Amino acid sequence: MSNTRIAFIGAGNMAASLIGGLRAKGLEAAQIRASDPGADTRARVSTEHGIETFADNAEAINGVDVIVLAVKPQAMKAVCESLRPNLQPHQLVVSIAAGITCASMKSWLGAQPIVRCMPNTPALVSQGVSGLYATAEVTAEQRDQAQELLSAVGLALWLEQEQQLDAVTAVSGSGPAYFFLLIEAMTAAGVKLGLPHEVAEQLAEQTALGAAKMAVGSDVDAAELRRRVTSPGGTTQAAIESFQAGGFEALVEKALGAAAHRSAEMAEQLGK
């Protein structure tokens, strides 16, 4: 990425986090630019990161190597069609918009090399994870560029099939909300057990953080980690058995299946 020039179309929170991650990795401000219809948004991103900003998308992509589409899915068709007359064949298009397929983007953009990504909101604190899929037109160098781009805010994982992005959406794209829900529920249960709300909330949050760090840093899987902290006949076993008696695993499978199904539905609706 040392000589790569990047334009962000859309300068909202996710784009700003990627820009901040790239700057932290050593990319010069002169190599990054962004466009956004909002004057306040342009001013904020320019002030925070020292990059040049534009109101006009065509100006922003002039002379760049990578174009990051960071707009709302509902705006993608109009944005792509407006960009098409100004694109160069070598420019890599990276989309971080949920639910927009490569086929839809090709119909709007033409035969550009495209990498479709599904990041998640922890990217805002540089702890994200993204699934990436590349079309056949993407070169090895462009794959590296996309990898470095998304790795600036967390982990980037390549997928062999585009349809797997629906599963990525279900597991990690929507996943943070599942953990927030668990934290909510554990906090409420702690309060009912007699803890002050603030104490219960801090216990739940720090436990989630600690467990995640243990899982990421361990050389064994989550099932083994669970077994290691579940003493026979102890308090953890009592809780786990209660979860399982309520159909916990089946409920999680059903929930993620619903998310994946909705992701596929949205792709069909937004791609028209």
Question: What do these coordinates show?
Answer:
This is Pyrroline-5-carboxylate reductase. The chain is an alpha/beta fold and 272 residues long. It folds into two domains: 6-163, Rossmann fold, CATH 3.40.50; 173-267, Orthogonal Bundle (ProC C-terminal domain-like fold). Helix content is 54%, strand content 13%. The chain is built from twelve helices and eight strands. An eight-stranded mixed beta sheet has the order 3-2-1-4-5-6-7-8, sandwiched between helices. It is elongated, with a radius of gyration of 21 Å. It starts with 5 loop residues before the first strand and ends with a helix. The mean pLDDT is 94.
How would you sum up this structure in a few lines?
With 272 residues, the chain is α/β, with parallel strands linked by helices. The chain has 2 domains: 6-163, NAD(P)-binding Rossmann-like Domain (Rossmann fold), CATH 3.40.50; 173-267, ProC C-terminal domain-like fold.
How is the secondary structure organized here?
Blueprint: E1 6-9, H1 13-24, E2 32-35, H2 39-49, E3 52-54, H3 57-61, E4 66-69, H4 76-83, E5 92-95, H5 102-109, E6 114-118, E7 128-134, H6 140-151, E8 154-158, H7 164-173, H8 175-192, H9 197-217, H10 222-228, H11 235-245, H12 248-270
Parallel strand pairs: 1-2, 1-4, 2-3, 4-5, 5-6, 7-8
Antiparallel strand pairs: 6-7
